[in-house]
Every structure is written in C-alpha cells, then in structure tokens.
Design a protein that fits this description.
alpha+beta; 459 residues; Beta-lactamase; 21 strands; five-stranded antiparallel β-sheet
Length: 459
C-alpha cells in the first residue's frame, strides 16, 4: 500500500512538472512564436538565406519583389539589375539584410492562423528608393564597377543605392566560369559593404578640420610649384598652381597646399575629425551594417601624414558614410541618418512599421559648413561646370584616387544640392575610371536630374 502511495505521489509530481513545462511552452509560444517562425533557418519563410515573404515596392509603388509565391522580381529587367543588391538573389549569394530586419512584419504571424504567407495574407513593404533613379544611375555608370548613392539629408530617405557590377536575377549569367572580369566582386554591395580610397574628396575633411582649428586659415596662402619636399620625400601635384589660398586650393585640388595643411594640422587633429565625422564607424541602416572606414596615422612619418590629408596613404571610406558627411555639411553641421525602409503594412494585429527621421549630433560648426558649401559651389562654377547640373545649386568635390600598381585611379565625386525643395546629398564612385570630375560629374548630373523629376512628381 505504501509503495502504491509513493508511486502515486511520484506520478503526480511528474504530471505537475509536465503541466508546468507545457504552461511555460505555451507562454513562450504566445510571446516568442513570431521570433521562432522568422528564424533565418526556417524553410517556410526563407529561401537560399533570403526572406521569401511579402511584397516589396519602391517609393512610388512599383513592385520590386513579390514573394507571396516564390520570389518574383520586377517586370523590367533594368529594375531587376539595379535593385538586386538591395533585394538579394534566389540562391543567397547576395544578402538582403533590410528584409531580414523587418521579417517579423513581412512574414506576418499569429498563433491562431500561423504564417500569413501560408494563409493567403500578404504584408507590403515600401522602400525609400526610386526604381527610376536606380535604373538611371546604373545606366550612367555604363558598365563600370562602382556605386551611386543619393539621400535626402533632411528626412534620411535613400533615393538611390546602386552597386555595379550586377546581373538580372531572372537571367543569371555563368559567373563562376566567366573570364572577362565583368562580374568581379559582383556579390559585394559596394554602397554599404565596401570601402574605397577616397582621393581628393577627402580634402573636405581636411578643410573642415582646418577651418575649425587653425586661426585665419582662409587668409593663409600656399605656393605650389608642382611639387614640394617633405623631409626628403616629395608630394607631387596635378599642376603648377602658384600662390593659392584655401578656396582656390580646393577648387584646383592642390596636393601641395593640402599636404602642407595636413602637416600643420598634425595626425591627432586629422584623426579626431575623421572619427568625429563617423568615417571610421560602421553605420547601421535598417539592419545593414556598413563597412567601417580606415584611417590610421600611428607612427606615420610626415610624408604619410601629408598624403593622408590629401585622401591617399591608407585612407578608406565607405560610400554611405561619406554621403552622410555630405549631408552634414549641407545641413549646417548635422544631418538625418540614412534609411531604406519607409514603411511596412503588416497583416499582423500590430500596425506594422513606419520610419521616423533621426539626426546625427552637431558634428561641425554651422559657420564651418557655410564656408565649405560656398567653396564647394565655387568648385562647380569654376572647374566642373555648372552646366552639368542645370538649374540646381550644386556644391561638390571631385577626387582621383590612386590605387597602386598600373591600375587606373578610382574616380570619385561627392556633394549636395543646396535647396530646401531638393535637399539631396550624393556620392559617385567609378572604379579604375580616371578623373573624378571628368567621369563622375556627368553621372551625378544625370542621377540628380532624375531625383528632381521624381520629387517634383511627388510634390
């Protein structure tokens, strides 16, 4: 009898443990069921490592990806190619972190009906990009490897984030066996996931540091004879500019003047401003972690300090981060943080998601930004040609970034439109393409023209 009683007690204890475990499981299920379902290994909502749920559109409602029944990309092949690095491919070689970031809303789930994609319900996400601007940018690159980025520095909306080379996900080439080099680095998102030697666009960082730390720097003059000696080493300039001040040195992109200015600033001040402006940080844009930049003058000799302020040495910048820096100058010292996801209309009981503008800290003095903007506009008026940007008040700086060996330099171009109606900051990188002003200014002009057309249509 005693044995039966003991066994009964043991059975009750086990039953109690079972019921407690079941209660805990149900509680976890109710609270974390959506997390379980949207786990990246779930075969119901992921294919090849990329999210396979929801409908994704551009800012104007053009469908870029419909994943309600497999992955169906845009009808237009040019749009498919221009947006591939944002949406990902079918095999998962190209990731789409922004979709994974909002997976819980896009998948849609509740404990009664399960995953919405299995019940015929669909969530819709709207990106900030314009498919028209994206295709214009890709066409303007003319097959060059590189990237074009444009964003609204007042709201944070990214209108363009093109990466090249790319391909049509509905007509995938034989990349593995390609020997032409046309697809080299095709799986890398060059706007978010790469860094580049900036070349002379970096002189804007040096200029900002000089304006804020060197008294009367605008009254200083530098004598450029085509080169200058730095303790036995030589800084070579692109021309013989004679006597220049800061404004004319920026316009002519004078290496001699900026080399001397970099030495006057010194490694500590240069490093402080690079870090202050976030150019060595990894930004987070809707789940995308941008590649961190690089700037290290530890034990660097004077010649390397000089070249670093010119935008060479071991300098590396991420295009998205540098675009944000352009927004900071345009915004009087602070700018909106870039974002890609405008909203998600979810079929969940919750209201989905809608983006909210966030701003950087005050990174530069307003007076500094005013002076930089005036000098950058002077660059456009006197060197690059305002005709490339008709009816737009563009402020910009070009760069020709030496990359070593016998390779052609990278062409770079960065700046912004100074206009409350079109508050756009931009960056263009065309790899191994030569002069920034010769190659990239026209690309920027075509893309900005399309941006303005899109914004006018929306207003």
């Amino acid at each position: 009898m005693k044995k039966v009683a003991n066994r009964s007690i043991a059975a009750l204890i086990l039953a109690g443990i079972l019921l407690l475990g079941l209660a805990l499981f149900v509680a976890e299920f109710l609270v974390k069921g959506d997390d379980w379902v949207t786990f990246s290994g779930s075969p119901h909502v992921y294919s090849g490592g990329n999210l396979n749920s929801g409908v994704i559109t551009d800012r104007d409602g053009v469908v870029l990806l419909d994943s309600t029944d497999g992955r169906k990309y845009a009808k237009d092949a040019a749009v498919r190619k221009a947006t591939l690095h944002l949406l990902g491919d079918r095999e998962g070689y190209i990731a789409a972190p922004v979709l994974k970031e909002y997976a819980d809303s896009l998948v849609g789930y509740d404990f009664l009906t399960g995953v919405y994609s299995l019940t015929g319900k669909t969530s819709t996400a709207k990106l900030t990009i314009s498919s028209k601007v994206e295709t214009t940018a890709l066409a303007a690159l003319k097959g060059r490897s590189g990237t074009v980025g444009v964003y609204n520095y007042k709201t944070g909306e990214i209108l363009c984030a093109v990466s090249s080379p790319t391909y049509d996900p509905d007509d995938v080439p034989d990349i593995k066996n390609d020997t032409s080099g046309a697809y080299e680095g095709v799986y890398v998102n060059r706007f978010f996931g790469a860094t580049f030697t900036p070349g002379s666009i970096f002189k804007l960082v040096t200029s900002a540091a000089a304006l804020e730390t060197i008294k009367d720097v605008e009254k200083q003059t530098f004598d450029c004879t085509g080169s200058c000696d730095v303790e036995g080493d030589t800084i070579v300039c692109s021309g013989t500019h004679g006597k220049v001040n800061l404004k004319s040195a920026l316009a002519h992109s004078c290496n001699v003047a900026f080399g001397k200015l970099s030495l006057e600033l010194g490694p500590d001040v240069l490093t402080r401003y690079v870090k202050k402006l976030g150019l060595t940080d990894s930004l987070v844009v809707d789940g995308i972690h941008t590649m961190a930049g690089h700037y290290d003058l530890t034990k660097a000799p004077d010649i390397d300090v000089a070249w670093s302020g010119i935008g060479q040495y071991t300098d590396l910048v991420n295009p998205c981060a540098y675009m944000r820096f352009m927004g900071v100058i345009a915004g009087g010292g602070k700018a909106a943080e870039p974002y890609l996801m405008a909203q998600v209309r979810s079929k969940k009981l919750t209201s989905g998601y809608r983006a909210a503008t966030r701003y950087t800290d005050q990174l530069l003095q307003a007076d500094t930004c005013e002076k930089l903007a005036e000098m950058m506009h002077n660059n456009v008026e006197t060197v690059y040609g305002a005709g490339k940007f008709p009816d737009l008040y563009v402020c910009a700086k070009s760069g020709t970034a030496e990359v070593g060996g016998e390779e052609m330099p990278h062409a770079t171009f960065a700046g912004f439109i100074r206009d409350d109606k079109y508050p756009l900051a931009f960056i263009v990188v065309a790899e191994n393409s030569g002069s920034g002003s010769a190659v990239c200014a026209s690309i920027a002009g075509a893309v900005l023209k399309e941006c303005v057309a899109v914004m006018d249509k929306e207003s």
